[in-house]
Amino acid sequence: MYVCLCKGLTESDVQQAALNGNVCPDTLKVCFGLEDEDCCGRCAKNIDELVGIAKSARSLTSTLPMLPQHQRQRPAY
User: Fold this and answer.
1) What pTM did the predictor assign?
2) Which of 5, 25, 36, 63 has CA 20 to 30 A from 43's CA?
3) How far is CA 72 from the centre of its chain?
4) Residue 77 — pLDDT band, cuts 50, 70, 90?
5) Cα–Cα distance between 59 and 17 in angstroms, integer?
6) Phi first, then psi: what are they for 39, rounded to 5°?
7) Residue 4 main-chain phi, psi, to 5 deg
8) From the CB of residue 70, how many other CB atoms can be counted at a distance below 10 Å?
9) What distance in Å separates the CA atoms of residue 50 and residue 9, rounded to the nearest whole number?
10) Could you tell me how far CA 2 lies from the centroid of its own chain?
């Protein structure tokens, strides 16, 4: 789902940013350019929702068991 149409930002983009360690509001604003001139600014005003998405992605991955590298690859179809 899109969370910012100006930047074409999706929930998965925010989740990926969280996996890279970006979960605080200011970092997300800079990471995605939410305060640039070409962005309407609604996302920056609703940054708490983006932080919630990011934090849920981080907490989900921290509770999942790590698989050995050979089991992480997707099967070829």
Assistant:
1) 0.65
2) 63
3) 21
4) very low
5) 13
6) -115, 135
7) -150, 110
8) 6
9) 10
10) 11
Residue where the block lists tokens 């925010």: 14
Q: Kindly list the distances between the CA atom of residue 51 and the CA atoms of 3, 15, 59, in Å, as whole numbers in the listed order.
A: 12, 9, 12
Of residues 31, 37, 28, the one with CA closest to residue 6? 37
More confident of the two residues 16 and 74:
16
Tokens found for residue 64: 């999942």
**Residue tagged 């910012």 (tokens):** 4
Domains and CATH numbers, the chain: 2-62 (1.10.10.1100)
Question: For 75, which DSSP code?
Answer: P
- For residue 5, pLDDT over 70 is answered with yes
Looking at the predicted structure, is the pLDDT value of residue 76 above 80? no
